User: Fold this.
Amino acid sequence: MMLHLLSQTKGGVGKSTISNHILPSLTGSSLIIEIDNNNVSSIYSSSSKIRGVTLKTDKKSIEQAIVEAELNSLDSNIIIDAGGGDDSLKVIEALMAAKLECTVWLPITPDAEALTNLQHIVQKVGKTYPINLVFSRFSKLKEDYYFIFGDETQSANLQFLAPFANILQVPIKNIFSKAKQRATTVWDLATIFGDKDPQMLKKEWQNEYANATDKVAAKELYMQKRAVMWLQDEAQEYLGAVKNSFQSTKDFIKTIQS
Ligand SMILES: Nc1ncnc2c1ncn2[C@@H]1O[C@H](COP(=O)(O)OP(=O)(O)O)[C@@H](O)[C@H]1O
Ligand SMILES: [Mg+2]
Assistant:
């Protein structure tokens, strides 16, 4: 069992997005545990890739909830989506207390508070767990990077990367909204047609059209299928780029310096 924790005290940085859409395919996990006081129902009901569970903590401490969940007894990989605010820190404390091993994924968005929020997690984790820094919801990596870490004339700003083992880049993209509209994940979209060869499928659909008597309806159907194919292409391309961006901090520094 490998545990992956999404942690960041700031809300809206992409913890849930990365937990549900990105990390399952990257880490081979299908179980997403969301730590929450509210009863948040799963919005990915059509997904065949992930299963979401909410660990309610209103009547007990996070520490107790983690112990009772007996995560060690599960043999699959698990993603924990820690809530924002203090919950993100409490989950780290709880995992440490339970002596559970984990990898921490720490998303930051290009905003003025990014550094402060980053430090909360870095200090709490210390040297206990490896931390992967996730550049989340950015558009131009270099510009956004310098916005967060300071002027590009200061080479010292690279010191901020020292605590991080690896870097992942999750650029801003409306593919997440498209997935959500279908109550599913980007990984599901990327595999809509499974192993079927897109070229073969297109030929099949063209044949269906050629043999149809009602050409108007057949054309409509063909266009619909093509649109779904484009969606699959888009999701595959995006997910592929995100996966390819996963690199050691050392390699990332070379990119940012070039
Ligand atoms: N890379 C991205 N591209 C586009 N929208 C994103 C991206 N990451 C997050 N979002 C959007 O930003 C909002 C907040 O993200 P969310 O994952 O819920 O943050 P958190 O769980 O940290 O509070 C959501 O509406 C989500 O769809
Ligand atoms: Mg969230």
